[in-house]
Every structure is written in structure tokens, then in C-alpha cells.
Amino acid sequence: MACYKNLLLAFLIALSFSSIDVGLAACRRLQQLPTLPKIPTLMPPLPTMPSLPTAPKVTLPPLPSMPSFPTLPTSTIPSIPFISPPPATKSL
What we know:
- Residues 1-25 form the signal peptide.
- It comes from Corchorus olitorius.
- Keywords: Signal.
- This is Lipid binding protein.
- The longest helix is centred in the N-terminal third of the chain and has 30 residues, at 2-31.
- Helix content is 33%, strand content 0%.
- The protein has a domain at 1-33.
- It is mainly α.
- 0% of the residues are buried.
């Protein structure tokens, strides 16, 4: 069992080193690429666009003022007279 684990560990280490070598080789290869030639332009340059006319400023009329509500008269409410019960009659 221990031999199997060691073999697996050795395989993983070898695989990682090989992928590092491939990555470094690709990096070197990309750095050695010749520069790409410039692509010739087939169309003449486009004329400049004319400037757009400015739109007139829009002004809104002022909002109408809210109508004032009539004030209600503040009158005092008449007090309700307190009606006392009739005096009790004492009968002995």
C-alpha cells in the first residue's frame, strides 16, 4: 500500500514538472514570434460629421397656485349644562 502511494506521488511530481516545461516553452515561443505586418487600409478616411444644431431651450409656464380654502370660523361650542339629580328624600 505504501509503495502504491509513493508511486502515485512520484507520478504527480513528474506530471507537474512536465507541465511547467511546456508552459515555459510556450512562453519562449510567444516571445520569439515576428511582429505582424500592418494591414493596409482599403477605405479612404471618412469625412467629418457636421455638427448637430442645438435644440431651443424649453421653458414651461409656471404652475398655477393652489386655491386658498376659506377659513372656518372658530366658534366656541356652548357647554352642556350639568343637570344634577334631584335631592334624595329621606324616609325613615
